[in-house]
Amino acid sequence: IGKWIFMFTLMISSSFSFFCFSKVDQFSDQKKRMSENVREMFYHAYNNYMKYAFPHDELKPLTKSYTDSLGELGNLNLENLSQEYNGTALSLIESLSSLAILGDYAEFEKAVFWLSENLSFDVDVRVNLFECNIRVLGGLVSAHILATDSASRFSSGSYENQLLFLAEDLGRRFLPAFNTPSGLPYAWINLKYGVMANETTETTTSGCGSLILEMGALSRLTGDSRFELAAIRAIRKLWSMRSSLNLLGTTLDIGTSEWIEYSSGIGAGVDSFYEYLLKAHLLFGSEEMWRMFQSAYLAVQSYFRHGPWYHEADMRTGRATYWQLTSLQAFWPGLQV
Ligand SMILES: *[C@@H]1O[C@H](CO)[C@@H](O)[C@H](O)[C@H]1NC(C)=O
Ligand SMILES: *[C@@H]1O[C@H](CO)[C@@H](O)[C@H](O)[C@H]1NC(C)=O
Ligand SMILES: *[C@@H]1O[C@H](CO)[C@@H](O)[C@H](O)[C@H]1NC(C)=O
Ligand SMILES: *[C@@H]1O[C@H](CO)[C@@H](O)[C@H](O)[C@H]1NC(C)=O
Q: Example GO biological process term (predicted)?
């Protein structure tokens, strides 16, 4: 009987609160449903990757097979692919922080131990520095921070900075790309052999100007300043190449430090340069990055913006070049919040 009274009271109080706070309840119900949706979608992708593709890089969902795509990222013509490369569990590395944030510490721990025992970057694969930085170095560094920010994430074993060691090994493999007279890094590096003979000297503004968050974090975590300094030197060089209007182009030559494509906007090839300047200020408190961001931002608003949207313009004259809206521009409002 006590149970029924309890339930009755519960019903009254819940209908009372429904009456008073129906809007709030509706909203929190909707939020709960949405977060369950996200969780389901994550596991749909993750479990199928683990079943059909791991430890290769990516799942091919229609054929239930895999592709080792790290060398293909940013490589539109699929040139210089290694025949020997069999993947580095790319999707698992990219999933680490999601596992931790979803509270799946058992799977997170399993993944960390698998990677620390089985992952090696001593592989013959020519990778795009930018892509490998955001996905692999960023994946490892952010998961390392999540693994160390709470004592409760590991149940059976203990975390001994395994992800940081992997990140540091990868970061060292990036450094030869920066070994250029201008300090602007090559866009491509072979993880085993360094910069290849006859490597292209063409790169993009985002490719050489948005490496500071991951490499800066790596330096702060390891105490080895070389990563952060290399990334900062590249940004300073790039910034020195801006036009009198404070605009940058889209593609450039790291050998001659000349622009190749003078037309630019806030989309492909430049987008994350702006993003990283602001975030480097937020993450590291860098006043220098903040000043660059302010000048770059004002120039963007003056020369690319047209009403509610943004077109491209020539960095030298500020005159509009291409009137098109592209998908990568979509990050801009997020930057403005
Ligand atoms: C990758 O797999 C192929 C085929 O199984 C094998 O011949 C090759 O030795 C492997 N490469 C490495 C680096 O293990
Ligand atoms: C490393 O890979 C081997 C072979 O797939 C596997 O048996 C082993 O369990 C892996 N190590 C960890 C810690 O998961
Ligand atoms: C680099 O390219 C030049 C000209 O295309 C060629 O003669 C040379 O053999 C190439 N070097 C290497 C190491 O591939
Ligand atoms: C990559 O392939 C292209 C075209 O096949 C070639 O011209 C270039 O020299 C190659 N680069 C490297 C680093 O092997």
A: endoplasmic reticulum mannose trimming
* Percent of the chain whose pLDDT exceeds 70: 92
Residue 178 phi, psi (nearest 5):
-90, -5
Task: Round to whole Å and give the CA distance between 171 and 168.
Answer: 5
- How many CB atoms sit inside 10 A of residue 243's CB? 17
157 versus 246: which is more confidently predicted?
A: 246
> 123 alpha carbon to ligand 2 midpoint, in Å?
18
Which residue among 54, 109, 114, 119 is best mutated to probe the pocket of ligand 2, counting the most ligand atoms within 8 A of its Cβ?
114
Interval 80-106: pLDDT, tens: 898 889 999 999 999 999 999 999 999
Q: pLDDT > 90: what percent of the chain?
A: 85
User: Nearest ligand, CA of residue 196?
Assistant: 4
Neighbour tally for 69: CB within 10 Å:
17
Average pLDDT over residues 172-196: 97
| 122 pocket-lining for ligand 1 (C-beta < 6 Å) | no
In the chain, where do the E strands start and end?
A: 58-60, 65-67, 126-128, 188-190, 202-204, 251-253, 258-261, 263-264, 305-306, 309-310, 313-314
CB 248 within 8 A of CB 264: yes
CB atoms within 10 A of CB 261: 18
Q: Closest by alpha carbon to 47, among 104, 9, 101, 87?
A: 104
